[in-house]
Design brief:
By secondary structure, the protein is of the alpha/beta class. It has eleven helices and ten strands. The chain has a six-stranded mixed beta sheet with strand order 6-7-8-3-9-10, with helices on both faces. Helix 3 packs across helix 4, helix 3 packs parallel to helix 5 and helix 10 packs parallel to helix 11. The structure holds adenosine-5'-triphosphate (ATP). Adenosine-5'-triphosphate (ATP) binds next to strand 2 and helix 1. This is ATP-binding cassette domain-containing protein.
Amino acid sequence: MVYQLQHVSVRYQEHDALQDINCTIEAGKWISVIGQTGAGKSTLMQVLKGLIPVIQGEYQIDHQPVSKDAKGRLQVRPEIGYVFQYPEHQLFETTVARELAFAPKQQRWSSSQIQQKIAEILPQVGLSEDVLELAPFQLSGGQKRRVALASILMMNPQVLIVDEPTAGLDPVGRATLLQYLQKWQQQDNRTLILVSHHLDDVAQYSDEIILMDQGVLIGQYDPVTLLIEQSHLLEQSGLILPESIQLLQLIEQCYGQKIEVDSCREEDIFARILPLWHRKEPNDE
Ligand SMILES: Nc1ncnc2c1ncn2[C@@H]1O[C@H](COP(=O)(O)OP(=O)(O)OP(=O)(O)O)[C@@H](O)[C@H]1O
């Protein structure tokens, strides 16, 4: 599947939330959307999911225009799973098992189909069957978020939008959740769209990054192009570079030498920095 926005604008009352957006989301990739608060990230995601209409421009799926009326936009929804920011606020059933079964029951799945799917999904999000009979309010923040994610994965979306999934989680919880998302995405050529303020997370996992600023799409880049070669764009948009890349820049300045990198993953950056560090003192030829 290919999702394309062509010259799309969205307005809330008098405020332009998205202005003349062009972007292409291709299947099988991890695409991150970054930008400061109010940049238009969630609005862009709602357009992709078909939740809000575009006032100008066109939304196409596999080169076919998506109808602008509510009925046409409804057809987009099943194939795209959307985990909202703070999804735990949307857990409303009395037990986790009932929560996970809710949407499949609406689609008239049999009980055994539901049980089979729950058994498949729980380990994918790092939950054990022990949580099934617990009430959502008995779970930790991280567990609630995983239950919310599991309830969306139950319906087999091929595209998953996750809006700030790591907000409020500690570093271990963040890494664990993102690793589960990566495993999910890498199976079956799936597409994951991560909305995030955390450039560290984005640098670690993305195939492509969409940078937004004040309703404008600044560009869609691979991580090395944006975080290394065009890092001034991030600074202009008020975003702070990951610490590993700040360190890379500092070492380049100290040694007066450009360090070539082909990945923005923290471990790959350190693998390039350390040999130079061990070899010589700064500016000591
Ligand atoms: N329902 C709405 N009615 C009016 N204005 C809105 C509405 N939703 C969003 N906006 C405005 O549109 C702009 C873009 O909002 P959006 O939520 O898309 O930004 P964002 O980048 O996702 O921000 P955040 O990182 O804080 O979630 C903001 O100025 C916001 O105040």
